[in-house]
């Protein structure tokens, strides 16, 4: 390993750090721009709307059912009253017929009371539904705007990444393959900073105190005496002085 190798690895590391940063920006864009939060809000509003819709649907079906029963009672009452006036009912049955009519009418009145309650509940839900719809359409517009901006940002980040990729490829072709592989493995493992300077006998990557022999080997490796660069025993980073 020579001084120029270290310099190349440094340049490579700089590119890799930038690539990592770009990747991070791309991955976090939905969060940072608020798109994710908005999409979540939208989802929750849509589910609220669905619930209101289902509730209104249930109420409307119950209303129709009550309405039908009430109509059928009314028909019955009408026909009994008609019979009564036509004289088809014997005198002694009139009292029981009257009682039945009053019974049916009281049932019908109960049905109507329930129907009114349902109608008022539906009326109460309708503005809530309209408000939810209005908020949904607002959020959709907002989200579209953010997504449009994000698409521009992503395109720009993508261009930067392509440029970095090209630079990296060019540079890596001039680095010794063994060294390149070693660097790549360490970078992937430690996350960042594959190279660590030795200062005051310490590895600056993990602060491990190095022995005199190790420090000497770092110096000698830079004079080209070793093909494989010395690495820190503790953190595994490539050491240079
Ligand atoms: Zn170390």
Give the helices and strands, then pairings.
Elements: H1 3-32, H2 35-86, H3 94-172, H4 177-190, E1 195-199, E2 202-203, H5 212-222, E3 238-240
Parallel strand pairs: 1-3
Antiparallel strand pairs: 1-2
The structure holds zinc ion (ZN).
Zinc ion is lined by residues 196, 203, 205-206, 208, 232, 234-235, 237.
Number of helices: 5
Q: Identify low-pLDDT runs.
A: none
Bound molecules: zinc ion
Helical residue percent band: over 70%
Shape annotation: rod-shaped
Provide structural commentary:
By secondary structure, the protein is mainly alpha-helical. It is built from five helices and three strands, in the order H-H-H-H-E-E-H-E. Helix 1 runs antiparallel to helix 3 and helix 2 runs antiparallel to helix 3. The longest helix has 79 residues. The model has no long low-confidence stretch (mean pLDDT 91). Bound molecules: zinc ion. The site of zinc ion (ZN) has 9 residues, from loops.
């Amino acid at each position: 390993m020579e001084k120029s190798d270290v310099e190349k690895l440094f340049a490579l590391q700089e590119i890799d750090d930038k690539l990592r940063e770009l990747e991070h920006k791309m991955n976090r864009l939905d969060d940072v721009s608020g798109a994710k939060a908005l999409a979540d809000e939208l989802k929750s509003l849509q589910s609220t709307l669905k619930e209101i819709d289902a509730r209104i649907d249930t109420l409307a079906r119950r209303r129709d059912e009550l309405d039908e029963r009430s109509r059928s009672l009314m028909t019955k009452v009408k026909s009994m009253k008609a019979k009564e006036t036509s004289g088809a009912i014997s005198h002694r049955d009139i009292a029981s017929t009257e009682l039945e009519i009053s019974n049916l009418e009281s049932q019908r009145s109960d049905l109507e009371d329930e129907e009114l309650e349902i109608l008022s509940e539906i009326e109460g839900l309708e503005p809530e539904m309209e408000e939810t719809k209005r908020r949904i359409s607002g959020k959709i517009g907002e989200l579209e705007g953010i997504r449009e901006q994000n698409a521009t940002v992503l395109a720009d980040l993508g261009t930067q990444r392509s440029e970095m990729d090209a630079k990296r490829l060019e540079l890596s072709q001039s680095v010794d393959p063994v060294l390149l592989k070693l660097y790549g493995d360490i970078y992937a493992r430690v996350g960042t900073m594959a190279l660590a300077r030795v200062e005051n006998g310490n590895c600056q990557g993990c602060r491990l105190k190095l022995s005199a022999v190790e420090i000497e080997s770092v110096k000698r490796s830079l004079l080209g005496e070793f093909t494989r660069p010395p690495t820190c025993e503790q953190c595994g980073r490539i050491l240079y002085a």
